[in-house]
UniProtKB/TrEMBL annotation:
InterPro entries the record matches: DGDG1/2
EC number: 2.4.1.241
Domain of life: Eukaryota
Native source organism of the sequence: Dioscorea zingiberensis
Matching Pfam families: Glyco_trans_1_4
GO CC, alphabetical: chloroplast outer membrane
The protein's name: Digalactosyldiacylglycerol synthase 2, chloroplastic
Length: 467
């Protein structure tokens, strides 16, 4: 008898051309998982109507149909990997929230996958995908549900008005929904909130292009050529919370020591104007430029990447800089723990150490990466870590054994969890309650436009709920 392939559905909260971590990393995960083993993989991404696309996607890029969007995503990935795409792409209805600058699901997105294919669900940002979920319980639909926590939401919320109070409630809301809907949670680093049934494991890799750039630089060094001709730089979305405030403060404190150092900042964002004003006030040479793709040839010759940000869970640009063979100066922070294994990563504990490490890095050459270190940064290694952390070797012929048990204790826990899920379903089905907690109005079911664009047919009950 031929064994059936295991089906893995990866749901995520963003999509290209929005260059955010939850658009890029799940895309690579789907490609490498499908290429790695005996899996049928589908990546389920949000579909936005034109008005929302114009708010979210850069450079006025829009799509008139899901098939056009799918073609764009596939082409972007084909330009970056060297093997055939073996996964499929699907869409769920979504809308963009201006208030929280995020894409939120509309309706019951578990319906994107048929019951016959509902083996494993991977929820990229599980709290985000389940805050307002109203529909079939994820654990009832899928035999195993794995959440991957990308974002330190508590840290971002604390920066808002009444932030600490909001963070207090959000902390418990996140624990509640992830306990209800996930069998296991993978936290990319200890910078994320501690959640039920969670482990810490970095299951992300870097775009292969960065490793190729690093190999070329290493070959130049081995030939005796000068591989790096530029000094220090930083790249990131140009908002204060992405490390610009900390970086400019560090440079300001040590202007005398760093007077001969040029630092180039690259980024685009709502705080660009203020960042430029602050940079001009410094007595040292700090130049500010618009954001660009980190793989752009412009960045290949920089030797030192300075990144004081502590709001990222695992900073993608830090991993990319290390893959390109650069020296990285970053904070000794739990979000950077994964990078401690690399000799080119220097972590500072004080502003004095930041200045000291920066000057030292500019005066020395990077240590060549070993094959093992290069592999650790790759998506091949990230896929291996994910499969081990997710424990997908569990017997898929029955529900997860950690969840279903004959013991009285397990039965009691399940009863409590079912009651908790019922409560969440009740609250998430009340329009006024949804709005009070931040949901987009009238998103219990997709509207006529989303249905038409995605070819969805609403039942009579769904039509009633929508109205």
């Amino acid at each position: 008898m031929i064994s059936r392939k295991q089906h893995i559905a990866i749901f995520t909260t963003a999509s290209l051309p929005w260059m955010t971590g939850t658009a890029v990393n799940p895309l690579f995960r789907a490609a490498y998982l499908a290429n790695y083993g005996d899996y049928e993989v589908v990546l389920v991404i949000p579909w936005l109507s034109l008005k929302d696309q114009e708010l979210v996607y850069p450079n006025k890029i829009t799509f008139s149909s899901p098939s056009e969007h799918e073609g764009y995503v596939h082409q972007w990935l084909k330009d970056r990997i060297d093997f055939a795409l073996r996964f499929s792409l699907s869409f769920y209805p979504a809308k963009f929230s201006k208030d929280i600058r995020s894409i939120l699901p509309v309706g019951d997105i578990t319906e994107s996958i048929t019951d016959d294919d509902a083996d494993v669900a991977v929820l990229e940002e599980p709290e985000h995908l389940t805050w307002f979920h109203h529909g079939r319980k994820w654990k009832s639909k899928f035999r195993r549900v794995i959440g991957i926590v990308h974002t330190n939401y508590l840290e971002y919320v604390k920066r808002e008005k009444n932030g600490h109070l909001l963070a207090f409630f959000l902390k418990y809301a996140n624990s509640w929904v992830t306990r209800i809907y996930c069998h296991k949670i993978i936290r990319l680093s200890g910078a994320t909130q501690d959640l039920p049934r969670s482990i810490i494991c970095n299951v992300h890799g870097v775009n292969p292009k960065f490793l190729e750039i690093g190999k070329i630089k290493q070959e130049q060094q081995q030939r005796g050529d000068q591989g790096f001709t530029k000094g220090a730089y930083y790249i990131g979305k140009m908002v204060w919370s992405k490390g610009y405030k900390e970086l400019l403060q560090l440079l300001s404190e040590h202007q005398d020591k760093l007077s001969d150092v040029q630092v180039d900042l690259y980024g685009t964002g709502e705080d660009s104007g203020q960042v430029q004003q602050s940079a001009r006030k410094l007595k040292m040479d700090v130049k500010v430029y618009p954001g660009r793709d980190h793989a752009d040839a412009l960045f290949h010759d920089y030797k030192v990447f300075v990144n004081p940000s502590t709001t990222d869970v695992v900073c993608t640009t830090t991993a990319e800089a290390l893959a390109m063979g650069k020296i990285v100066i970053c904070a000794d922070h739990v979000s950077n723990d994964f990078f401690k294994q690399f000799p080119n990563c220097h972590m500072y504990c004080s502003s004095n150490e930041f200045a000291k490490f920066t000057l030292k890095a500019l005066a020395e050459e990077p240590v060549p990466l070993t094959d093992e270190q290069r592999h650790e940064l790759s998506w091949e290694a990230a896929t291996e870590r994910f499969l081990a952390a997710a424990e997908l070797n569990h017997n898929m012929s029955e529900k997860d054994p950690s969840y279903v048990s004959k013991s009285k204790t397990r039965k009691l826990r399940r009863s409590i969890e079912d009651a908790s899920a019922y409560l969440h379903q009740t609250v998430s089905g009340i329009e006024t309650a949804r709005r009070a907690f931040g949901a987009i109005p009238k998103t219990l079911q997709p509207d006529e436009q989303l249905c038409e664009e995605l070819g969805l047919v609403l039942t009579e009950r769904q039509k009633f709920l929508r109205h």
